[in-house]
Amino acid sequence: NAAVVLREDTETGVTRLTLNRPAARNSLSFAMLGALQTALGEVAADAGVRVVVLAAAGPVFCAGHDLREIVSHRADDDDGRSFFDQAMRRCAGVMQAIVALPQPIIAEVQGIATAAGCQLVATCDLAVASDSAKFCTPGVDIGLFCSTPGVALSRAVAAKPAMEMLLTGAMIEAAEARRIGLINRVVAPHSLQEATMALAAQIAGRSAHTVRLGKAAFHRQRGLPLEDAYALCAAIMTENLMAEDAIEGIGAFLGKRKPVWQDR
Fold first, then answer.
1. Phi-psi region of 101 (alpha: psi -120 to 50; beta: other; left: phi over 0)
2. How far apart are CA 176 and CA 179, in angstroms?
3. Beta strands in 139-197 (DSSP E)
4. Fewest C-beta atoms under 10 Å: which of 88, 129, 162, 222?
5. pTM of the predicted model, to two decimals?
6. What's the average pLDDT block by block, 10 residues per block, for the chain (264 residues)?
7. Separation of alpha carbons 125 and 18, rounded Å
8. How far is CA 66 from CA 12, 87, 176, 233, in A?
9. ∠ CA 212-10-20 to the nearest 5 degrees?
């Protein structure tokens, strides 16, 4: 049985995780979510991984939850309630694991990303998409509002474009997704992997200690009132200034030389 999430480590410290259920449009079955959670846990604990790229096999990036699996559980004694609860909790856990991942994670979007697939893209720190990629939260079309994708979407883009996607279910092109801030870059399909890996390599060339501190601080402060956010980040910057890499980096800048990172 082929793994539903593939891991590939590169020499530059960039690890690729690839959703690998192309025949099922990489839909997030309970097993796929479990495999993704496991892979994220292994990467989080691996000091050799500096940046993560989340990619997908086949023409579709991710079609969201596996609706066939959901429908099959309507035959359960409780009409599927406990399975639905477990599936939604597991999906929420995966999304939170992406945010909590020490390393930055970049979505590499080659095709359509719908519902919880769009949620994955919105949750990643950065996203690079092919100009043929499309995005939507179409739950409203089938009587199932994309409430959990809305959590990630509303944190990635402004309220009005997020609500328009959620209320209409309309598919948006990559250029529009970039305009509203859902993705960072749009590139030609043939150069998608190259462009994503180049961005990943650029970040991987920084002090891993600094990048990890910074990602954690960014996500923590977003949920805080202004005064608390500044208190948190001022304390983190003080800690950062005491780190070996900050001493080296500032010294290198003032001495007009290239810094040599120790990642601490």
1. beta
2. 5
3. 172-173, 185-187
4. 222
5. 0.97
6. 90 97 97 97 97 98 97 97 97 98 98 98 98 98 97 97 98 98 98 98 97 98 97 97 97 97 96
7. 17
8. 34, 10, 26, 40
9. 95
